[in-house]
Amino acid sequence: MAENVDIEIRGMSCASCVGRVERALGKLPGVIHAQVNLAMQKAAIEVEGGTPTAGLLDAIEAAGYQPVVESSDIPVTGMSCGSCVSRIERALGKLPGMVEVSVNLATQKAFVRYLPGAVSLSLIHHAIREAGYEPQAGDAPQQADSEDREGAQLRNRVVLAAVFTIPVVIIAMGKMIPALETLFSSLMPHRGWMGIEWLLTTPVLFYAGARFYRAGYAELRHANPGMNSLVMIGSSAAYFYSVAALLMPGFFPTGTAESYFEAAAVIVTLILLGRYFEHLAKGRTSEAIKKLLQLQAKTARVIRDGEAVEVPIEAVVPGDRLLARPGERIPVDGVVEDGHSYVDESMISGEPVPVAKQKDAEVVGGTINKNGALTFRATRVGADTLLSQIIRMVEAAQAEKPPIQQLADKIAGVFVPVVIAIALITFGVWFAVGPAPALSFAFVTTVSVLLIACPCAMGLATPTAIMVGTGKGAEMGVLFRKGAALETLAKMDTVVLDKTGTLTRGRPELTDFEAIDGHENEVLRLVAAVEAQSEHPIAEAIVRGARARGLELPAVSHFGAEPGYGIEADVAGHRLHVGADRYMNRLGIGLGKAEERAKALAEDAKSPLYAAVDGRLAAIIAVADPLKEGSAEAIAALKALGLEVAMLTGDNRATAEAIARQAGIQRVLAEVLPDQKAAEIRRLQSEGRRVAFVGDGINDAPALAQADVGIAIGTGTDIAIEAGDVVLMRGDLRGIVNATALSKRTHRTIIGNFVWAYGYNLALIPVAAGALYPFVGVLLNPMLAAAAMSFSSVFVLTNSLRLRRFTPDIDDASPMTRGEPQVGQVHHQA
């Protein structure tokens, strides 16, 4: 059957654009006809039924234009298991214009991407309701209120159910304990007690447990049974069997007109209690997001007409001048214009030592100003602030489904119908060949199978672990932009590191200054004065080294530079020449033994220079881009985890191998052009390797995207960060070790959850069906089945919460993480 799809398109400007889009769409399988209207900026496409919308969007993007797609996170209440997830995804997936649907049980959210011209949010909400669930407003305060109401309602229903269930259980015990049976018989006939049980059980099922009946009915109405259907069928079977036994005892075979009111009441009470415990545990899994949200300021002090006026944070715009008083939270990102203070940036770096801030320093929204007033100009506000970006990254990672969860949802989608079939077979077998009273045995085993098999634990196994793992990562300064990266990173066998800015600090530093003629500080002072006239990065490194020693630089005259050779100038009555060996040779200045020393420095990946004062060689200078603190330690730790570590760089091989030796890396891929980096990653992947690539620059973005897991250094460019799956906010390679260890721990937790969830069902369904009865004469009581099912879900949640106690393998808190400028040590010899 043909369907019509309308897609808004941005970027078209002429008839050739129209033709290009129509040709791109016309080539797709399933497209019957495509007509593009330039004036309306819209494509009307006729497709065969079932043609994926995502393919149409990819074709438009490939043609160079932008289809208009909207996305939304919709909180959904009423979900309890993996089959609920599958049901909502199927219901939404059938809507015309739906591009992507992902439902997360742990976060209780549905993420949708859709074509705004084809489907609306109201239609999406309607489809969710039709599936038997309730969509909620998506803003954080309303969602938090909704969660609080849900918790309070569950608690109240549990208390009410327990108050009515306890006396039902006591009455039921009277049938089994002789002393109680005698007492109860003297007070009232057996059928009278059954009547009281009926009165007490009815509000437990149909008021306290009404949620199971509403959701279960909706599931069955859509021919898509789930956990609520199992609870509804199981408890109703026990309840209505008992009502019939009370009102029409003669209808039943001798000995089978028994009461199971206590089973029905206890089933609902225990499952409600389990659901309440789940709610509490789920709240703890999302604590990372709640803590991040709490860091956001609600108001800001904006300077208007010379006065600091307190305004809502939403009213701040880029360019506003703001005041942050001591003890206040910095409201938005900005640059300091006036004042001096120390700012607690532990939310970014994890390092509790405050960072000094003065004119031209950057400040980050959400950090805390400690002891001085700062006036700064807003640069990023609202959703553009670093804190907002971090929150979005964590939320996106928690909402995304890794491959193992997608498989689990598919299994859960067919699991419940299979369980119902097993329950029917169980009833038939026991009723046909079971011992007397066969009806009672058939009833008990069938209800037990229905209750023991509820797939709650299966649906919670992965998303709860992902939520806790990504939240823990955020606390450690490791942001997982994609939840799947947690699973994928655990399977890596090769880590490829970019050199400049990743392994190294990314800027040259003065590493060696060896005075040959004269006092070292005096010679360095003269050399730095000359270099201060140059814009070359090496010159800047020498000047920084001199200033780090507190040296005053004298005035310079007659400055000159010869590209490729060096520079010269008059300083403090001396004529100075600074440059490479060829410059000294041209000037006729002998190098002597200094040449051997320079060769040794070059082998250590340092760039040697010479300084001459008044025509005599005065010093050997070495400048290098040194390893970041902790790089060698991180590489050793990665090797200890069983990973192969390689370095990928565009530098010449000699320099690359020297840096690799310092870092402890054996495999070096050197002299690789920027556009070849992704090709090198593909080559490693073709060898069967699972590759994680770590980089920080614009030229690293293709390699980050190509790798199985791209790890971006958070101190790098925005483009690299956007291309990465994982972001190290602290810029320290030791974060890779911690990220890898956390991912492995999370993966083990997920596997453990699945082993428990599936193993529990596979092991106990036969027991519930009565497989042990022929051997040991034992049947599983429906009440115990309900308790076991609830315990299974709580076990999975608590097992995931153990990830909150994860501790990093190595400490990556260093001066680098505090944003403090680093000065290379200057080694010298007299």
TrEMBL record:
Principal localisation: membrane
Keywords noted in UniProt: ATP-binding, Cell membrane, Copper, Copper transport, Ion transport, Magnesium, Membrane, Metal-binding, Nucleotide-binding, Repeat, Translocase, Transmembrane, Transmembrane helix, Transport
HMA domain segment(s): 3-68, 70-136
Record-linked Gene3D superfamilies: 3.30.70.100, Calcium-transporting ATPase, cytoplasmic domain N, Calcium-transporting ATPase, cytoplasmic transduction domain A, HAD superfamily/HAD-like
Protein biosynthesis found in the keyword field: no
Transmembrane regions: 158-180, 192-210, 230-248, 260-277, 411-433, 439-462, 754-773, 779-797
Family annotation (CDD domains): HMA, P-type_ATPase_Cu-like
Membrane topology: Multi-pass membrane protein
Location(s), subcellular: Cell membrane; Endomembrane system
Iron in keyword set: no
Family the UniProt entry places it in: Belongs to the cation transport ATPase (P-type) (TC 3.A.3) family. Type IB subfamily.
NCBIfam families recorded: ATPase-IB1_Cu (TIGR01511), ATPase-IB_hvy (TIGR01525), ATPase_P-type (TIGR01494), copper ion binding protein (TIGR00003)
Name of the molecule in the record: Heavy metal translocating P-type ATPase
